[in-house]
Specification:
Blueprint lengths: L1 H21 L4 H20 L4 H4 L2 H8 L1
């Protein structure tokens, strides 16, 4: 399940980054988002979150710390 969650998150991240590029976001902004989203994906992988737990306030607060 965990690898499916990370794979789905990676796909969502790629889709978001493509959306940013297609909507004219500055390259620097895209790079900043990409870097932070990669950290987030690693955080989700290391702490073994399931898909339903990724975008909760609790998870996002833990990530910010």
């Amino acid at each position: 399940m965990r690898s499916e969650t990370v794979a789905a998150l990676e796909q969502a991240i790629q889709g978001y980054l493509q959306w940013m590029a297609g909507n004219g976001y500055a390259r620097k902004t895209q790079q900043d988002h990409k870097r932070m989203l990669r950290y987030f994906r690693a955080f989700i992988d290391v702490y073994r979150y399931d898909w339903n737990d990724i975008f909760t306030r609790r998870t996002l607060n833990r990530f910010k710390r």
